[in-house]
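User: Structure tokens for this complex, please. No commentary.
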Amino acid sequence: MAGPSQPSLGEFEQVVLLAILRLEETAYGVTIRNEIRLCTGRNPAPGALYNTLDRLEEKGMLSSRLGEATPQRGGRPKRLYKVTEDGVAAVARAQRAYQALLKNLTLPGVVHA
Amino acid sequence: MRKADTAEVILSLVTSRERASSIAGDLLEDAEATGQFWGPVARTAVGQGWRQISTEPSGLLRRGFGALLLTVGVTLIGVVLFFVAMLIAISIAKVAFGKDLPDLGQAAFTFAFYFWVNFTVGRSIARRWPGREAAVSFSLVILMRSIALGAELLFWIIQRHGGDAYADIAIRPVVFLSWYGDLLQSLILAIPECATDFLTLVAGAAYQRAKALRSTAA
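Assistant:
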């Protein structure tokens, strides 16, 4: 369970962190949006996504560095994101909380891990 | 790639320059698949700007006060420069000017001076608080309007109790507070005034950012 000193994660924050973890070294704005769209069917607004990325970086759950610039991007560099150890711990904690809540519940189409 | 440059300038008013550049690149890349560019740019700019306003209101208020002092300073400098220019013009032309400028000339001059003050303050905001220009401009506009509204409400209460209130605080031609006794009219006029103030401030900030981006690219 999250203690008082452990920052909690919102639902969309978890989605973003999980998408970045799935993408590994190739996570930047466009690929993160695409991954969320593919996995959840949601189409996050770019404004909401960049706000969430900034917030998670401020919380120390993400780190970022500038990547390559391509002509397709008008010569502008990608900002590549990586989940930090704190971020992994926070998302694992949140998932454990979900698992605990789901225990002994039967929901249609949901298979427990 | 001109549209990407413009988008980068717009986004750099609400976030750091490096982030604005990578976000503009992302949106450009996304636009190849979706065909949408300006809508996402506008929504991202509004989202980032609103985040700055909502997450740090006290810091923004402090910067708004700083920008208010800048506005007063720039206005005073403008008035002094205008009088010096007039004195030079009079001494060179050796003609006596009439009491007043013609009506149309006065309106054009008032607008030009007002625009110059806000544009200059916008540029200063861009130099002092890069990446926060839109939020600081918003804060300045709200602060100025709140001060005016507070005074107007006070005058309105005085009037309702049978008193007589009139105020006209200005460093001509920039008017800081005018009150002629009609609260409703004042509130209605506040909306276009705030919008014009914000847009002229942001225009100055955007000009400064575009200049900085051009000098880096060169």
